[in-house]
Amino acid sequence: MTADPDFNSDWSRYGPVLQFLAKAVAIYGAWYVLYDLWLLPDGRLDAWVSQTVLHAGQMVLSGVGIEAVANGRSIELARASGIRIVDGCNGLATIGLFAGFVLAFPGSTRRRLLFIPFGIGVIYLANVARVSLLAGLQVHWPPAFEFVHNLGAPAFFHLIVFGLWVLWANYGSPSESPASDSGPDVSTERSPAVADV
User: Fold this and answer.
1) Residue 7: how many CA atoms within 13 Å on its side-chain side?
2) What is the distance of C-alpha 26 from the center of its chain?
3) What's the Cα-to-Cα distance from 80 to each of 68, 73, 74, 97, 146, rounded to whole Å?
4) What whole-number distance in Å separates Cα of residue 156 and Cα of residue 153?
5) Which residues contact 24 (CB under 8 A, 6 or more apart)?
6) pLDDT category, 176, cuts 50, 70, 90?
7) 3-state DSSP call for residue 122?
8) pTM for this one?
9) Which neighbouring-strand residues pair with 76?
10) Phi, psi at 76, each rounded to 5°
11) What residues are paired with 71 via a beta bridge?
12) Which residue has the higher pLDDT, 12 or 100?
């Protein structure tokens, strides 16, 4: 029995995708285990993230004229029941998912060291916007709160992570020169008028 060369070439075509998926799952799995076994029981990181998000959300709400007071992990509202951020809803899992995608996809270490903090900042600001929106909905449109909390906010975060990953895939990895894509018969000699910048 001989191996079908077309079958092997089909699988080799999917090699980079399968490698990316395996790395992403492994990194996210490691983050999940680290989070569940150490960070979540310790509680300090969750508490700090939740409190800073709530304080920033309280400033946003005060800026748009809604009376709000940040108290621990809760925002107390003058005209509604308020909201509380519990572990698992503070964005840390989303940050782990985002970092896993960036670490699994090819790119330079220097660009990763710049892009991961950028992405964490975007996710943090999105969480502040989510908390502010949910508190604002409690005051101005209470029936919409459950829908936005249960369906809209998770979809919003997944779209942000996907958008950040697309941004990383397009701009994070070093671009290859067109000559490397055109095959082995392309001359690599330099023209005297071309200089490296």
Assistant:
1) 3
2) 16
3) 10, 16, 12, 33, 14
4) 5
5) 100, 101, 104, 105
6) very low
7) helix
8) 0.75
9) 69
10) -95, 130
11) 74
12) 100
